[in-house]
Amino acid sequence: MNLITSNKNGSIWGMFLNAGENGKNILEFNGDDNKIETKGNANNVYGIKLNSSTNGNNVLNFNGKENKIETTSSNANYVYGIELNSSTNGNNILNFNGKENKIEAIGDKNNAWVYGIKTSSTNGENNIKLKNTNITTNSNYVARSIEISDENLGKNSFEIENTNVNTVGNYSYGINVESSDKNNGSGENTISFKGDNTFNSTGGKSAWGFRIVKNKANTGEGTKITSDQDSTLNIVSKGNAVSHGIYLSHEENNNKTNSTFDGKVNINVLTNDQGYGVYHKHTKLNNSTNTVFNNDTFISINGNGNQKIAVYNATLENASDDSKSIISFNKKLAINGAVSDPALVSTGKNAEINIAGNDDVNILGNIFTSNKGKVTLNLLNKNSYLVGLAKNNGTGIIDMKLANSSDWFMTTNSNINDLDISSGAKIQFSKTDIPANLSIDNLKGNGGIFKMQGNVQTGETDLLSIKTSSEGNHYIEFEKMADSKSTGTEVLQLVESLGKPEDHKAVFSLLNEDNHVAVPTDDKKPSRPKAVIEKGAYVYTLGRATDSKIVSINDANVNNWYLFPYEDDGKGKLTPGAESSLSFSNTIYQINLLNTETLVQRLGEIHFDKTNLKPHNVWIKHVNGKYTSFANDTIGSFSTHYWGFKAGFDWLNLRNNWINYNGISVENLNASTYPKRFEGKTKISGKGIGIYSTWLNKNNDIYIDLVGKMMWYKGKYDIVNYSNENIKSNNANINSYLLSIETGKRAYLLQKKEKAFYIQPEMQLIYQFVDDYTLHSSNGLKSMTKNSNSLIGRIGFRAGLDFYGDSVLSPYIKLMYNKEFLGSVLNDLNTAKIEMNNKDDWFNYGVGISHENKKKGRQIYLDVQRSNKHLIRQDWQVNLGLRYSF
What are the GO cellular component annotations (predicted)? Predict the structure, then answer.
């Protein structure tokens, strides 16, 4: 059936059903294709109009497969796709039951009011069922796809199923519900959603998905909106000036609006000025508004607007006790927008926003309350988070519960009322350079984590301020900053507890990566080491003022908690990275000690060769050993295993009574250092080149040995710190230079043909210079080691037997006294200057043996030594060499 109507003047109707007193009209369209098309430039253009009064009854059913209502006008002031009016017990019933239903209303006039479906009831009733329906409403002025007017005077019921509503106008409304503009009354309006429904509203100036405005009293049931559990409701609102998803405003006393969405709800708002996802407002004292989302809810606020709020709830500060405005989210909730925009705003008495947290809750945006308004936020699983600040402005209420590894990324200062945090839930303070303050009235729960940061150099830090009471065991995860310029004397207050001391029972501990370690009460020692964090070159821990031993904190409040230098036997403690940087310089010093080798360790026994001399010598030797450095006031003990090869070639010259060896040498050395306090190691390798000139007087056995060397070292460390973090340094390059002079005389005490006993006093002076170098660790620590000087003197003797024959064998023992006259090394750890002083004296003692086969011109020599305990103890060292003369 096709019905086409057109007219140029007055009013025009495509279909008009009027049921007067006790009248009844029933009309059904059962054909496959039904179309009512109305065109005209009349003042009022109607596609369909149903009017009932005084017990009249209209029933209009569209049962066909395809049903279309098309109403267009280029000059009408008012365009209606369908209008329903009922009064004085009149009843209108409109059902769209077809598989494809279409309602289209278009008005091109600049001041045209265009309605898709408009209902009005004054003591009457309208019942509309929209199933599988597309509603399109276009206007250059006002476009309202579904309009319920005079909501406080009668009864209107909409059942909407699998319907798409597209509204375009300068002022665009998907659903609009309004009171009578004249009278108070009693009305009841219901809107129920089934299946999948979408509302798209596009406004040149303003756009509303749902708008409910009540400016006259309604003593009836008010407005009820529901959706089925398996349904999905999509609301898209795009307005250049104002955009709303769901807008509820009660502007007169005695109004009620209750919305219960058991299905999924998606709200998308785009605006260049003001935008709201869900909006409640009471401007009079006695009103009730309750909106409940019982299924997954998604709210997105986008655009360039300067006032974008996802959920807004406002009442009067002096509202009556039974006047309430409540918005509740009981399942999954996602709010996406700019982090700087408000996500939840509640202001006024009995204005509440409740987030149950029964599923994932993801909120981007801020929370504000004022004038007794309240927000209750629960983040109860690991996938839930809030990114933004929370402020109650001193007159509002914000209660939060976080549990089970949920997160709050607090962007700046926040103040709330009650905080219940437990089970690894985390509040991460602002990651900016500006410290953040979280102020709460009451702290509850157990096992909450507060992730904070601060600057030990300036003293600026995040702060948790508790005004009234606290309980539970909680943790502070303080940001490690190995690049900080700390001196090991700084103190930062992290927790402030106000009010009565007896009301504060919370205990705070630093969060260790592998364990939660309780902080001791007052000055009692912990059964296990405290958790620590790194700030610059030093280690810090958490405790009360009385726990601090390195720095005195003048605070009698035992409920305040501070970050202060970790105390280790009365001293501060360096970080493993800092210790490794210092031990690195010590390892360089130890390797350089290898270069203080004696003549016999390098060339073997030159006293064997006084006759039948050959002009050239080539030699090679292997060195292997271990040092132990003992803990001091600065660093812990560590051990160094070293090994390497040295080789050389020299030319022999006879100068009167002197035998002169002039030669060159090359070497390759390696060292690995292992700390005792933590895991990891330092590896250093070195290559060197040297020259030497050795003189032996063949008449009196006096010798002089002159040596010059240049070494190139490369090294780095790879360690695990106290928090089980892997820390690595770059490869540092170091240059080192050596000058040495050694002299001695072999004196034979008992000499026979086949053997002789000798004693050989020796003395040596060695100067070494090490260039400055820099180590950069992966966690930000920067260690600059200044150039250093070493001057070591050695005096002692060797005593042994020379056995003569076709070959010569010479075993010996030795005892040497060594003294370091300089040895100071200055390290700059992020500007914290630490001097390592190697000035000390010690004894070396050992044994050796040399064997020379004169016929083959070959000598094998072995030297084994160790030292007594001093700053650096040589546990053992083996020199094994081979020299060949030709």
Answer: outer membrane
Classify strands 782-785 and 824-829 as parallel, antiparallel or unpaired. Answer: antiparallel
213 bridge partner residues:
178, 249
Contact assessment for residue 786 and residue 772, using Cβ atoms and an 8 Å cutoff = yes
Q: What residues have CB less than 8 Å from 348, skipping those under 6 apart?
A: 282, 313, 314, 315, 316, 317, 319, 325, 371, 372, 373
Top pLDDT among 636 and 842 is at 842
Q: Where are the alpha helices (DSSP H) in 514-663?
A: 576-594, 599-603
pLDDT at 516 over 60: no
Find all residues with CB under 8 Å of 143, minimum gap 6, and list them. 114, 137, 167, 168, 169, 170, 171, 172, 173
Q: Which two tokens stand for residue 846?
A: 């050992």
CA-to-CA distance for 272 and 238, rounded, in angstroms? 9
In CATH, what is the architecture of 576-885?
A: Beta Barrel (2.40)
**Mean pLDDT over all residues of the chain?**
92
Model confidence pLDDT, tens digit, residues 24-80: 999 999 989 999 999 988 889 999 999 999 999 999 999 999 999 999 999 999 999
Could you report the per-residue pLDDT of 709-740, keeping only the tens digit for each?
999 999 999 998 887 889 999 999 999 999 99
Distance CA 398, CA 410 (A): 14
Measured CA distances, 211 to 208, 217, 218, 539 (Å): 6, 17, 17, 60
Question: Please, where are the H alpha helices in 56-198?
Answer: none
